[in-house]
Amino acid sequence: MANHEEEFLTKIEGRKAVVAVVGLGYVGLPLALSFAEVGFQVLGLDVDEAKVKKIGRRESYIGHISEGRLRETANLFSASTDFHLASQADAIIVCVPTPLTREREPDLTYVEGTLAALLDHLRPGQLLSLESTTYPGTTEEVLRPPIESRGLTVGKDFFLVYSPEREDPANPDFQTQTIPKVLGGSTESSARVGMALYGQVVGRMVQVSSTRAAELTKLLENIYRAVNIGLVNELKVVATRMGLDIHEIINAAATKPFGFTPFYPGPGIGGHCIPIDPFYLTWKARGYGVHTRFIELAGEINAGMPRYVVDKISFALNERRLPLKGSRVLLLGVAYKKNVDDMRESPSLEVLRLLVEAGSQVDYSDPHVPLMPRTRKGDFGLRSVTLTPESLGSYDAVVLLTDHRAFDKPFIHAHAKLVIDTRGAFPDSPTVVKA
Q: Is residue 223 part of a domain?
C-alpha cells in the first residue's frame, strides 16, 4: 500500500480529513452537510458570493434544506469563494453543472473552469472526485491529463474518482445518506480511497470497474427515465384520441407484480438531468459511429409535449368560443417537479413562452416560486398569483403543470371556469380537460 494511500485512509477513519465541496447547489449543499454531520471539517467553494454569504448567516437558499441543518453544522461547515483554500483540503468533490450548448452538445465549461481554478492548489495526497453528470471518458480525458501535467501521478500520489450524484430533491424517502452510491476509480488505489471516503456518509457503496463505467451508469439511469417518460407521453396522446384515461391505464398496469414499472405523463420533462443527460451519450456515441435513434426519438417526443399542451388549451378555449389570443390563462406550477423550487429546464417555462407568443395574457401561481427569475426562456417579470375564488374565476383557463402538494384541487376545481389537467389530478368533469 502506497504511503499517501495509508495516510489518507488513516485521516478518513479518524474523521481528520478536510473535505472541500465545489459547487453548493442542489447536489453540493446536501453533500457538504452530510459530511459535516458525521464530524468532518467541510469547506464549501462556490463562485456565487450570495450563496456563500447565506451559508455564513446559516440561511438556506434551497427549499428542502432546513436552516436547522446549517446551524447544527456551523462549527464544521464554512463556505468561501476563495479557491486557494482548496490546498487545505484532503478531498475535493466537484458538483458543478454540465449543461448543453445551443447545438445540444456537452458543455463542460463549468467542469473545465473549476479544474483550472483548482490546478495550482492541488498537492500530493489529495483525492479529487467528480460528481457532475457527463459522458464516458470525461474523468480520464478531461481531468486526468491536466492533473498529471502538474507532476502528480494518479494512483500514486494523487487519487481520482468519478461518483455520480443521485439526489432527488424534496423526496422524503431518500436522502444523501440512504441512496446507494456508485463509484469508479482511475486506479485501484483511487477507488479504495474514494470508497473509504464516501463510505463514511453513505450506507451502501457500489464500486464499478472504472470511471467510464460509473459515468455510463449515471447516463443509463436518466436515459431509462427519459425513454419511459417519452413512451407514456406518446401513449397519452394515443389514449386521449381513443377517449381513454392514460392514468387509469397506467394504474391498472401497475398492479402487475413483475415486469412493469409505472411512469406517468406530463407537460414535458425538466430538471438538471433528464432533459440533458441523454444527449451526452448521443454525442459520445457518434464518435464510435453509433446513432442512438431510440434515445433521440424519446427526446423529440418529450420536447414536443409543451406544444401539445398549448394545442389542448387552444382547443378547449375554442370549444367555448374563445380565441387563444387575448385569453387570460393561469399556469399552476413553474417548478420542474412537485414540491420543489427548482425551475431548471421546466416544461412550464416553454408552455409559458408559447402562450405569450400566441398572444395570451399569462400569469402563474407557484407557492415555491414567489417571484419568477430571469430564465433562458425569457424575462417575464411575473409574480406568483394568490389563489382565491376571485382570482381563479377571473381566468379563462387554469392549467395544472406541476402538481404541488400545496395546491388545493377541490378548491381550484370549484372556482375555475376551465381546468386543463396535464397530471391526471382532477376528476372527470365538464370543466376539466385532460391534456
A: no
